[in-house]
Write a structure and sequence with these properties.
Helix content is 49%, strand content 16%. The protein has eight helices and four strands, in the order H-H-E-H-H-E-E-H-E-H-H-H. The longest helix is centred in the last third of the chain and has 23 residues, at 181-203.
Length: 228
């Protein structure tokens, strides 16, 4: 097929393509499921370890050793915050404070390390702003008071947690997947409409012009031009 043949098919079935795109676009917009609002509470903190000096060991640098130990603890703490046990401890603190209608899981907690600043951040995602604040406060309390539970090698003292920024609750914007849902559906409908147009043209055995006659092996003597 030549390019004009493709154009002929698209012009013939343009109404079908447009109809399919409009139906899918309007239907996706009307019947789309509105995502529940999400809120995020984030807090930044530092974590350190006190390493007592061992005077009997030569070449021992307590400051360097403390810094290296803090690095190891910091890397492990990211996974601890994302764990079930940390979520369970936060839930226990919430219940002690009288918040009984909130039950979080590890999917509601996140953690990251700011490599350039040597700081850590903890984030809470929840569908209620006030409850997100309470969860973040409970998580901070668990960080500062119960962190020795997760690092038995540190003894009863645990790690030193210093809160840099208090929890701040902010709405979470729509994800890229949600934003692109309807445009992707419309694009698929457009491609499906074009494909359907060519399928219908292929199945159509009607003779419309001289080229269709010649394709049947017949010779065209004359052709009456299309009237205006």
């Amino acid at each position: 097929m030549e390019l004009r043949d493709y154009a002929r098919v698209l012009l013939r079935y343009w109404w079908l393509i447009v109809l399919l795109v409009v139906v899918v676009g309007v239907g996706s917009f009307v019947f789309r499921v509105q995502p529940a609002p999400q809120y995020s509470a984030s807090v930044r903190f530092t974590i350190g370890v006190d390493a007592p000096a061992a005077k009997e060991v030569s070449g021992y640098d307590p400051i360097l050793t403390s810094y290296q130990a803090s690095e190891y603890i910091r890397d492990d703490f990211v996974e601890i915050i994302r764990s079930d046990i940390f979520a369970d401890d936060v839930n226990a603190i919430l219940k002690k404070s009288g918040v009984n209608d909130v039950q979080i899981g590890r999917g509601n907690l996140g953690a990251a390390i700011e490599k350039q600043r040597r700081l850590m951040s903890l984030s809470v995602t929840w569908d209620d702003a006030a409850q997100a604040q309470k969860i973040a406060d409970a998580a901070v309390k668990n960080l500062t008071e119960n962190n020795a539970k997760y690092f038995a090698q540190l003894g009863s003292t645990g790690a030193n947690i210093t809160i840099i920024d208090h929890p701040v609750v902010s709405p979470v914007g729509r994800s890229l997947r949600d934003q692109m849902d309807i445009p992707i559906r419309v694009l698929i409908a457009l491609l499906a409409g074009v494909a359907l147009a060519f399928i219908l043209d292929y199945l159509d055995t009607a003779v419309r012009d001289a080229r269709d006659v010649e394709s049947l092996g017949l010779k065209v003597v004359g052709e009456i031009p299309r009237g205006k």
